[in-house]
Amino acid sequence: MTSVFEAAFALLVFPGGAMALSMGLFLKGVDRRVAARLQRRVGPPLLQPLWDVLKLCAKETLIPATANEAAFLLAPVLGLAGVLVTAAVLPIGGVWSGVTGLGDLLLLLYLLPIPAMAFMVAGSASSSPYGALGFSREMVVMCAYELPLIAAFLAAGARAGGEGAQALSLAHVMAYQAAHGPFLLDPVMWPALAAMLMFIPGTLSAGLFDIPEAEPEVLEGPLLEYSGPLLAAFNLMSAVKLVVVLELVVALFWPNPLGGNWLVNLAWHVAKCLGLMLVCFTTFRVATGRLRLEQGFAVFVKYAAPLALASLALAVALR
């Protein structure tokens, strides 16, 4: 059993807490810098996301007079807490095995929607019509990408050959890949991988799926009325969510470490997350425009979900 001290360390320091926050702000800085270069701009400093958070923490928090104050204040706090817990339970190949009894796929299905739910609560609590529109858009997009996410999880468990609760264990999926090679090289899992690569920009509202916060239409939607430390908490939540989503895809399809040295494995893990971000997040959002709400919903229902279900069917048939 994982001790209380180990669980607290994982939540507050590594791999959640300080580690997740630092890695998230670093990845956000790289993302903004590379995006600027792709657009032939100089771009901000690498540490600009950190300076933005510190600046916001020094500003006043303004609450709309007609807002639901309790929900307005709790939304960013609960969202940030949710992603930090998710980062703490996600295993890292060769570095961190996850919190015993918690780091499974079923738990992740409950934890992953928390940031989106925080956005929805924030939008509905702000009393702004733009926030309400952002709330409804976030809910529709979340409902669209949940099915391919669940199907990809089940496909990974079925391919790893687990029985019962073991089929929903991310640690078991990673152990199978350590023995038989990563799912990245397994043709049976390629459709599920394609679905998860669609899930990354979908859940992070990037490029084609920048629907809930579309600046020209809903003016940042749920975040329009936020300022000061509350907006800083949302920025930190967004940074850690980026880490969580990238780490999840790495754990599902390419968790294999390089060797026995945990520092080398950690550097390898960060490099994989960085490469995945540059391809599926940074380049994608720079190169694409934005779909309408019904078009974004259709992408996941018509393409991502059938791909993930195809991998699930193949994995079950070949067991």
UniProtKB/TrEMBL annotation:
It is found in: Membrane. It is a multi-pass membrane protein. Keywords: Lyase, Membrane, Transmembrane, Transmembrane helix. The chain crosses the membrane at residues 6-27, 71-93, 105-127, 139-158, 188-209, 230-254, 266-287, 299-318. One of its GO terms (molecular function) is lyase activity. GO terms for cellular component: plasma membrane. This is Formate hydrogenlyase subunit 4. The gene is hycD.
